[in-house]
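Board notes (copied after class):
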Amino acid sequence: MEENNQLDSTPWYAIRLFSLKLKAASGYFEEKKVEYFVPMHYVDVLDKENHIRHVLKPVVSNLIFVKRTMSDAELVELIKDSNIKMAVLTRSRNDRTFSEIPAKQMREFQIMCNPEIELRKYLSEEEARLKVGAPVLVKFGPLKGLTGKLVRSSKKYYLLKEVPGMAVMLKVSRWCCVSAES
């Protein structure tokens, strides 16, 4: 199955919800047999007995990623049929074409969003654009093969991966990275 996943070149879309019904939206896509992804992370919460528990929660409560397994018109129709207000992110206000996320980029983003990985930061699209860094390929270590932008934050180096709607940064040693520019 993993090998099959590596060969899959189907792009993804980011869908913005205009409510906080992420659970209902993911349930709707699951019911319609549409592959989706919601970035999750562990949060410490205090329960009724004043015990701290680690609970898995969505990173962004109004963003869901959907694999493009149908035409744009069919996706728009699928979204209209739901009782949840949502829309596919577009390239810009002027360019209304859907912003596609290439399969390789989405695969790397999903790996970087693994909730078990520590020393990770999530950023908004705007915050990510402000980060200055060089495009790199990780050559060694547990992140070997991933690409992104090498950025510095709080005197540490991070691998930054951007997708429409959000970005993720993972702690990385700069010595494990090589320039990705040709």
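Comment from the instructor: The mean pLDDT is 89. The chain has five helices and 13 strands.
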